[in-house]
Amino acid sequence: MVTPNARRNRGQVILIGAITLAFILLGIVVVFNGVLYTETLSSSATSQSTADAEVIEQGLEDDLIEIARRGNQNDDWKSSNDFEDEITNTGKFNHQYRNLTANGRSAFMSLTDVTAEYGHIATNVPIDGSPEQIDVDDSKIDYLVLDLNATNHEKVNVTTDKDSTNVTIESNSNSFEIDGCEIDSADVRFDLVNGETDDPSAVDCDSDELQNKLSLIDEGVSYDEVEITEDNLGTYDIVARDGFDGNPDSSHEGVWKIEGNITYQSDKVSYERSISTILIDGDGE
């Protein structure tokens, strides 16, 4: 026969065991959750660091393209190594960029083994009223800009050898018109690659509409010749990948492709990779 005291003692033992088991299970859950949380934080931090590295890397490539294009337009590259020197040797870009990433975050990035391939560029080439034939010798054109003044200009027509594609820009004393799209300015630079002007506020039509009318040169397409016919005076700038066939005479070196090695290192991510950036198009062909 079980006495009341024995039943009471057994109940207390069961209660204590249940409480102990509950604490054990709770401890296991806490530890398990802590491990999962730590792993999640680690994975999240690594992913964020990788994303940061990709942003920095893209910014670096954008900066290189901008330096190359500004140098192309300003005739900065007098010899075949000038761009490389500007980036990694006598120039300050690589040193300043490395310091910028190091000061801005706990990361280090450097650019080494920079090489550039050069094409030809001509700037401020006068258009004397007669047809101007630009022989680009099966080259891809990175930049073609007309600099026109409406007061001494009536109409300019630019034609390529690709299906006779063309664009016509007419003036109205102090403004320009492209197929019904008005540009209310007397001095305008027309970009025939990007389909833009240097004063978007003067354009009375939608930017997409202007781009569709003005974009004559397709990136990644090879051209043999471009003809500019103008009633009066103007100038143009052009950058072609491979060069000009003896015309214009004022052509000089311009960068069209950049290659190099990037090293990125932080407390969470470390890698090295090669970059190849084409200013003309994205496929290198």
TrEMBL record:
<dbReference type="Pfam" id="PF23922">
    <property type="entry name" value="DUF7261"/>
</dbReference>
<keyword id="KW-1133">Transmembrane helix</keyword>
<feature type="transmembrane region" description="Helical">
    <location>
        <begin position="12"/>
        <end position="37"/>
    </location>
</feature>
<keyword id="KW-0472">Membrane</keyword>
<protein>
    <submittedName>
        <fullName>Uncharacterized protein</fullName>
    </submittedName>
</protein>
<dbReference type="InterPro" id="IPR055685">
    <property type="entry name" value="DUF7261"/>
</dbReference>
<keyword id="KW-0812">Transmembrane</keyword>
